[in-house]
């Protein structure tokens, strides 16, 4: 075993002392051997412990631990701690001897295999030497052939390097050329004013070329020039945009006038259509129902007509967006437009507002039409809140200007002109979504001022029409004049067309006043139309009552109360009032038509004007004034105390002379009244005159100026009274009043004076105290009046000779009866 081991070791050392490659091969062989031994040892699952003679139990335990690879450190530490290391050393030596024995057994087992491996290694060494020799020969040959190739390879590599440099140079040159070409294009665009293309070109240079330009000088030059060009473009664009701002401001007036003109044309077409509708409704007697017309005005029509160029704005905004400063441009636009608006809202006090209001309002309309187009077409350029703020500023200023100017105006025409244009402005801007309520509210606040001015203007016209009236019946010679003065105001008394020449029962004042009232209604409707309240008929009705009551009625009453008025004037005024009262229905229907209200809704009795009642009262006042004039004239004719001899001794043979004048006057009055006045008025005039005569006679008997009267005077009054009674009966029947007033004849209003004359002429006047007789014959007489009058009745002649002639004559029965009546009346009183 020992000799074998020695051989193996010596043999191994021999090969190791050879060259490096042999050392490598020996190492490989030893490694193979070690691998074989390791494989064999690992193949055993667990070492078998052989107990030899002389082994102790401790040796077996130690051998088992070492064989299992366990840590023997604790045993060693324990042996030294116990102070007995010698037994442990002895045991370790025993274990070592046992391991050596195992190694020798292993070597004996693998000896033959190891010899075979060594032989194989020797063969490998020989092959390696041959291979080395072949490699050296091939290397020499390769060196000979490769030297020339290496020279050519170096040349080729040099060519490749040159080619690469040239290619790189060409590429760099192309980049520079492309960048320079873009720079040239950019300069050309800038010079031509195509700033959008110039900015897009610069953006292309910055994104695609600026970072890859190989020439540093060129790169720096372009980097320095780009901000300069952008600044130049921005200034140029702002300059162009400023010019556009000035242009659009100067164009705003034309834009506003055109837009307002379109609305005015549409309004005119609508009014014409409504007028045709009203005429159709008036002529529609077949029950076809109400006609309806509508007018559609499309916004597209305005957009097609209102052409103004916003391209400079779009371009400027787009360019500023590309420059990355859109907010700055928005602020610039908003601030400049705000300044323009402030300037537009300033009015010139050097020119009357009535001459400048259209320019002022059209400028504002054009301004906000432009803003609406901008906000609708420029995307998010302009915010709705900004436009709303500008509109609130404008509308506040407009309202203030209108209120100040309306307060200064003294002409309803001027105020109406401004109002109409303001409503057109409101209608125009409402189509663009602007809230115009405050402007319309300002107009509504000024409606009282307008109507005050209109009333004052109409008052002057009415005063002129009434003061210049001839108070003569109007003579109409043509059918056209009849239509214009009678039919147009529904003043006809018959539906049949009269024969011409036609004498109207009213004077020229009536149609003149009707025309004034109609123009007032038209003016009022013009102002109230297109305002805050779409249903303004009730407001118009209030103003219509106001002019009829506060103006027309007051002027008529002033004329009536004028002391210089005559009978003809009073009679004509009363007749005129009755026709004006009738015209109130026409005024109301006309107002309803202008307001678009169905005529049938105002034809109800409860829907009539309050002025109609007031005019009726004024008509009664006119009748009263007429009666006053007539009665005054009758008093002038009669003058009973002066015209009658109250103590005459002669028996009268007929009426007094003054009675002829009274009858002639009454004939004239009644004839004229029959032609002019309506039946009820004619009756009132006749009754009033007759009643006044009756009262005058009774009053004369009661007058202090009559101290006494006799039977002859009573007989004379009786003759006069019969004339009046005959006249009363004749006129009562000839005028046809007997068919209307069957229970109230003219004679019935003479009953008091007739009963008085009958009492004074009676042979038994004391029968007055008989209740039955008094109720039948003297029911209208008052005790006190009868007592007073009877005290004045003296039947004896008033003269010395008469008294002496009759001193022996007995008192007649009549005198006794009268004395008895006087006595009993005194007792009764």
UniProtKB/TrEMBL annotation:
Residues in Exocyst complex component EXOC6/Sec15 N-terminal domain copies: 91-260
Chain coiled-coil ranges: none
Annotated Exocyst complex subunit EXOC6/Sec15 C-terminal domain residues: 440-792
InterPro entries on file: EXOC6/Sec15, EXOC6/Sec15_C, EXOC6/Sec15_C_dom1, EXOC6_Sec15_N, EXOC6PINT-1/Sec15/Tip20_C_dom2
Keywords of the record: Coiled coil, Exocytosis, Transport
Keyword Transport: yes
Family the UniProt entry places it in: Belongs to the SEC15 family.
Role description: Component of the exocyst complex involved in the docking of exocytic vesicles with fusion sites on the plasma membrane.
Designated name of the protein: Exocyst complex component
């Amino acid at each position: 075993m020992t000799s074998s081991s020695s051989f193996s070791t010596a043999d191994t050392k021999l090969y190791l002392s050879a060259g490096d490659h042999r050392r490598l091969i020996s190492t490989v062989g030893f490694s193979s051997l070690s691998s074989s031994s390791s494989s064999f040892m690992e193949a055993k699952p667990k070492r078998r412990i052989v107990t030899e003679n002389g082994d102790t139990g401790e040796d077996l335990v130690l051998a088992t631990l070492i064989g299992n690879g366990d840590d023997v450190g604790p045993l060693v530490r324990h042996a030294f701690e116990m102070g007995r290391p010698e037994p442990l050393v002895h045991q370790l030596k025993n274990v070592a001897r046992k391991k050596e024995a195992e190694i020798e057994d292993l070597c004996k087992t693998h000896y033959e295999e190891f010899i075979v491996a060594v032989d194989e290694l020797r063969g490998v060494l020989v092959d390696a030497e041959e291979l080395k020799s072949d490699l050296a020969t091939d290397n020499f040959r390769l060196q000979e052939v490769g030297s020339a190739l290496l020279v050519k390879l170096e040349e080729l590599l040099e060519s490749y390097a040159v080619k690469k440099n040239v290619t790189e140079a060409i590429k760099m040159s192309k980049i520079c050329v492309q960048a320079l070409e873009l720079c040239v294009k950019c300069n050309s665009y800038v010079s031509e004013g195509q700033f959008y293309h110039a900015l897009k070109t610069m953006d292309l240079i910055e994104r695609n070329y600026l970072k890859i330009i190989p020439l540093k000088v060129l790169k720096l030059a372009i980097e320095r020039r780009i901000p300069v060009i952008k600044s130049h473009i921005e200034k140029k664009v702002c300059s162009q945009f400023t010019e556009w701002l000035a242009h659009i401001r100067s164009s705003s007036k034309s834009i506003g006038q055109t837009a307002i003109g379109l609305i005015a044309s549409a309004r005119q077409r609508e009014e014409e259509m409504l007028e045709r509708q009203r005429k159709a409704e008036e002529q529609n007697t077949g029950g076809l129902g109400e006609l309806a017309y509508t007018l559609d005005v499309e916004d597209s029509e305005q957009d097609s007509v209102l052409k103004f160029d916003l391209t400079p704005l779009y371009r400027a905004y787009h360019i500023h967006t590309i420059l990355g400063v859109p907010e700055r441009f928005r602020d610039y636009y908003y601030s400049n437009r705000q300044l323009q608006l402030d300037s537009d809202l300033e009015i010139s006090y050097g020119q009357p507002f009535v001459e400048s209001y259209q320019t002022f309002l059209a400028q504002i309309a054009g301004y906000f039409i432009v803003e609406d187009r901008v906000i609708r077409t420029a995307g998010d350029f302009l915010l709705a809140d900004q436009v709303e703020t500008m509109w609130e500023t404008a509308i506040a200023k407009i309202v203030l200007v209108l209120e100040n100017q309306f307060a200064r105006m003294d002409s309803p025409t001027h105020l109406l002109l401004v109002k109409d244009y303001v409503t057109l402005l409101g209608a125009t801007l409402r189509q663009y979504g602007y809230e115009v309520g405050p402007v319309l509210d300002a107009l509504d606040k000024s409606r009282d001022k307008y109507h005050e001015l209109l009333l004052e203007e109409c008052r002057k016209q009415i005063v002129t029409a009434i003061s210049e009236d001839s108070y003569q019946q109007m003579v109409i010679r043509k059918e056209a004049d009849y239509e214009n003065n009678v039919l147009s105001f529904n003043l006809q008394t018959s539906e049949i067309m009269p024969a011409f020449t036609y004498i109207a029962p009213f004077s020229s004042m009536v149609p003149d006043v009707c025309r004034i009232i109609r123009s007032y209604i038209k003016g009022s409707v013009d102002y109230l139309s297109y305002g805050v309240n779409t249903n303004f008929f009730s407001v118009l009705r209030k103003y219509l009552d106001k002019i009829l009551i506060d103006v027309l009625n007051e002027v008529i009453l002033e004329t009536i109360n004028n002391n210089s008025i005559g009978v003809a004037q009073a009679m004509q005024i009363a007749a005129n009032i009755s026709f004006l009262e009738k015209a109130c229905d026409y005024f109301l229907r006309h107002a309803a038509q202008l307001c678009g209200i169905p005529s049938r809704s105002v034809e109800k009795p409860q829907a009539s004007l309050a002025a109609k009642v007031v005019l009726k009262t004024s008509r009664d006042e006119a009748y009263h004034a007429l009666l006053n004039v007539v009665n005054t004239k009758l008093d002038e004719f009669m003058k009973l105390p002066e015209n009658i001899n109250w103590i005459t001794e002669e028996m009268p043979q007929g009426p007094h002379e003054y009675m002829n004048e009274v009858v002639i006057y009454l004939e004239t009055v009644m004839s004229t009244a029959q032609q002019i006045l309506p039946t009820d008025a004619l009756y009132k005039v006749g009754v009033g005159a007759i009643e006044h005569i009756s009262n005058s006679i009774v009053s004369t008997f009661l007058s202090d100026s009559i101290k006494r009267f006799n039977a002859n005077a009573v007989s004379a009054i009786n003759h006069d009274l019969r004339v009046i009674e005959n006249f009363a009966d004749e006129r009562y029947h000839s005028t046809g009043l007997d068919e209307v007033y069957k229970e109230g004849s003219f004679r019935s209003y003479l009953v008091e004076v007739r009963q008085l004359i009958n009492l004074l002429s009676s042979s038994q006047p004391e029968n007055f105290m008989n209740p039955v007789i008094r109720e039948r014959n003297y029911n209208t007489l008052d005790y006190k009046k009868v007592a007073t009058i009877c005290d004045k009745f003296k039947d004896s002649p008033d003269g010395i000779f008469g008294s002496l002639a009759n001193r022996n004559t007995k008192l007649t029965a009549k005198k006794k009866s009268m004395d008895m009546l006087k006595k009993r009346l005194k007792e009764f009183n």
